[in-house]
Amino acid sequence: MQAAGxxxxxxxxxxxxxxxxxxxxxxxxxxxxDAVDVLKPQGGAYSxxxxxxxxxxxxxIWQTYVPKRGQAGTVxxxxxxxxxxxxxxxxxxxxxxxxxxxEILAHYLLETLTAATVLAEEAKAQLRLDxxxxxxxxxxxxxxxxxxxxxxxxxxxxxxxxxxxxxxxDPNLHR
Length: 175
Fold this sequence. Notes:
This protein has 175 residues and is mainly alpha-helical. It has one domain. It is 59% helix and 0% strand. The protein has nine helices and no strands. The protein has helices spanning 3-6, 9-13, 25-34, 36-39, 51-65, 75-93, 100-115, 121-135, 145-160. Helix 5 crosses helix 9, helix 6 (75-93) packs across helix 7 (100-115) and helix 7 (100-115) runs antiparallel to helix 8 (121-135). The radius of gyration is 15 Å and the shape is globular. It starts with a helix and ends in a 15-residue tail after the last helix.
């Protein structure tokens, strides 16, 4: 598989204004039911999804669970939002606006994804390295490969959790 061509969801989402977001978790659950074919694993492993299935799942999560502003009300939405916030800050801003909020987002990704049984230990080890690199904010990582790996891991988590998983608003997060 070609890493550069596989994951471009982040680049597609930059600057995009996507309509049709569910206005609450109940509507999001109905949308998730409608998209169940996209979320089904092939051969019992989510990592066997095709590139197109990953892209479709990413679009679905972005359109359904990620609000135009502020934190997502679901774990699925917040995982994708966190990765894209970190990608944007690094690539577009060179981490010039880095603050505690970015650290919260990075740790949220790490804690949520490494606590899950969905990811293999090898994927968790890579995720730890990737998040550690992001946290080196004085040396911004501006390539896509690292963020694309995180995206694939979070989409595997989302595929394993097709129903919306509610999350509480973090009062310390202002990003």
